[in-house]
Amino acid sequence: MSEQPTTVSTVALGIARIEWVPELHDEGLSAAVDVVRREVEAALVAHPRVEALVAPEDELAQRVATWSGLRREGVMRGVTVDGETVDRIVYARLATDAPAHEPDGFRALLNSFLPRKRAISQMLIRDSDARVLLCQLTYKQDWDLPGGVVEVGESPQLAVAREVEEELGLELEAGALLLTDWLPPWGGWDDALCLVFDGGTHETAILERVVKQTREIRAAEFCTPEQVEKRCADFTARRVRAALDQLGRGGGAASAYTESGI
């Protein structure tokens, strides 16, 4: 190889950026990784952070970055490269990161690029007339079951109880898991798993205890099956039906699985 295969430059205080020529890949993955890893380790002597910006379509460069010990951090959008506006995947390693050859470091490396799926927890709450509690939300037209997104590292079962308390002011324990519903990508969202937990049967007067989080909740009402069909998006209505069907079969003995409620 006639030219220097890698370059390391300081882009900000304490931050070095490493780049390598595409021809380095011709040496094979293992050889390319060895070169880049050595340069990263050398740069970390003088800089607390070393990063690389890799084109999303360059899968080989992504593998070189990963196995050189650089963790994937996300996508930087709208970067100007050679006068062109492009996206770049950001990989980085800190001087304080555990080395990739150690178990903790290797797990952290894998965790940085393996797929992550969004989880949503919802609660199926009924009244003595077999109606279902629905919420009218401020950020969309259709109604939905109470609940929300599970935080990183949070139990889905605890998450739905937290969401119900935050949104409605109700302290209800989440019971058995009734349904796992896979939601395909839709309307700008990536795909997700929606977990529906049994919230039990309560007197209709429980609505008198509701304290709405006005930023998200317009109204909360117990709804008949006909109202569920009318007020909810079609996939939400299917999810409610599937959860009720599972409850009718005995509930948490074994939860059901659906895709978009089917």
UniProtKB/TrEMBL annotation:
Q: What is this protein called?
A: Nudix hydrolase domain-containing protein
Magnesium recorded as keyword: yes
- Domain Nudix hydrolase: residue ranges: 115-245
Pfam families assigned to the protein according to its UniProt record, in alphabetical order: NUDIX
Q: Which UniProt keywords apply?
A: Hydrolase, Magnesium
Top-level taxon of the source organism: Bacteria
- Does Magnesium appear among the keywords? yes
Q: Which PROSITE patterns does the entry mention?
A: NUDIX (PS51462), NUDIX_BOX (PS00893)
Q: Could you tell me which Gene3D superfamilies the record lists for this protein?
A: 3.40.630.30, Nucleoside Triphosphate Pyrophosphohydrolase
Family the entry assigns:
Belongs to the Nudix hydrolase family.
Give the PANTHER family listed for this entry: GDP-MANNOSE MANNOSYL HYDROLASE (PTHR43046)
> Cofactor(s) for this protein?
Mg(2+)
Native organism is: Nocardioides koreensis
